[in-house]
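Help needed: design a sequence for this.
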């Protein structure tokens, strides 16, 4: 009998998405009758705007959309994405520089698969979204963490990035607004980081999926626009999931130099072929329309953001910087690790999150999933009443720690 492993080492090394795992566990407990409130998944609680749904209904009736279409995306959607990019960030691209993908995650994977050879290093600011490490690993790359904390609002400095750079560094992953922290770089900070990357000939992969979700005095700045000297060494990742409440429609995109987009399109032609045409037409309606529905959602998120941060900071042992974008809070719970709570002493934020789920019936994602133990990520993309009830339960439970 063969003793060779049944599963390849490459795939065995991949971890399950921690955020989706927490969300699945919360939903299973809720289905079993427990009143669980989930802060796990980054998913707007709003329905997809009606005009977008109607565009999909119309597309489903058109026979031409019942067939294969170009692997890289419908030409009209690629043009609309190029137009939207110019409108929203001032970055001018041609439709040929756009690849429409099956959600943002496919864009992340294909970007790194196209750019990296085995051993190439990618600088990744931690805390980071859970999918980035797995995509880099699958591409044969080596992730180099640049760790930040609450003292700087989870923002990395050029000095930190330079200290992490080696002769093997090929790319910088730049994410602003950030998942999981909600951190947003100012224009000045973005320009400084972009100029540093350009000076050292690095690629910049920038994830801009939360571009429209910024609050207060914060402003979104595309590093591609802010630093023209980066030239053709920028790859932009984006999608409709967060901005238009379309997580289930699975449409993202990658924008980059023509040779990168052509290579990534070749990969997609063998991996998945075209994105579902009905979803593409829904995305066309989204990116071509105005941003009024987005503005309404942003107003609600802003209100919830302020409520959540205030309530979290009222809990002894918890400190939460104010997130400037996305829809997540990332509080430190380091002071609570090791304290006694209902007869137990959680030794990590992971163990504390398990205890909260069991005792308070509230699901949060521990910082271990994002590369920085000692923290929680809570999404405030859920209803106001559930948000207040959930954080109140957590506060009541954690007040017992001693």
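Sure. Designed sequence:
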């Amino acid at each position: 009998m063969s003793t060779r492993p049944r599963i390849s080492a490459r795939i065995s090394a991949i971890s399950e998405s921690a955020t989706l795992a927490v969300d699945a566990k919360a939903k299973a407990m809720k289905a079993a009758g427990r009143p669980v409130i989930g802060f796990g998944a980054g998913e707007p609680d709003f329905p997809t705007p009606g005009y977008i749904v109607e565009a999909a209904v119309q597309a489903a009736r058109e026979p031409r959309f019942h067939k294969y279409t170009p692997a890289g995306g419908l030409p009209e959607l690629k043009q609309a994405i190029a137009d939207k990019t110019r409108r929203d960030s001032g970055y001018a691209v041609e439709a040929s520089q756009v690849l429409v993908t099956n959600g943002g995650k496919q864009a992340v994977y294909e970007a790194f698969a196209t750019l990296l050879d085995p051993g190439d290093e990618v600088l990744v600011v931690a805390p980071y979204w859970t999918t980035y490490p797995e995509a880099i690993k699958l591409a044969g790359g080596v992730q180099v963490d640049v760790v930040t904390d609450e003292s700087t609002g989870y923002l990395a400095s050029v000095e930190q990035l330079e200290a992490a750079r080696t002769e093997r560094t090929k790319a910088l992953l730049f994410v602003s607004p950030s998942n999981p922290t909600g951190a947003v770089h100012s224009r000045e900070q973005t320009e400084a980081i972009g100029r540093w990357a350009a000076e050292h000939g690095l690629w910049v992969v920038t994830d801009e999926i939360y571009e429209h979700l910024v609050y207060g005095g914060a402003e979104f700045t595309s590093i591609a626009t802010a630093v023209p000297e980066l030239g053709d060494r920028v790859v932009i990742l984006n999608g409709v999931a967060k901005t238009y409440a379309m997580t289930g429609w699975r449409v993202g995109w990658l924008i980059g130099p023509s040779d990168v987009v052509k290579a990534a399109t070749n990969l997609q032609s063998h991996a998945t072929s075209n994105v579902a045409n009905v979803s593409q037409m829904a995305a066309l309606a989204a990116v071509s329309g105005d941003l009024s529905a987005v503005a309404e959602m942003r107003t609600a998120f802003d209100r919830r953001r302020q409520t959540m941060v205030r309530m979290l900071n009222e809990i002894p042992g918890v400190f939460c910087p104010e997130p400037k974008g996305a829809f997540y809070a990332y509080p430190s719970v380091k002071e609570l690790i090791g304290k006694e709570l209902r007869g137990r002493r959680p030794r990590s934020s992971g163990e504390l999150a398990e205890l909260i789920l069991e005792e308070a019936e509230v699901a949060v994602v521990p910082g271990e999933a994002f590369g920085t133990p000692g923290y929680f990520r809570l999404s405030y993309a859920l209803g106001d009443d559930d948000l207040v009830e959930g954080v109140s339960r957590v506060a009541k439970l954690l007040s017992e720690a001693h």
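The radius of gyration is 21 Å.
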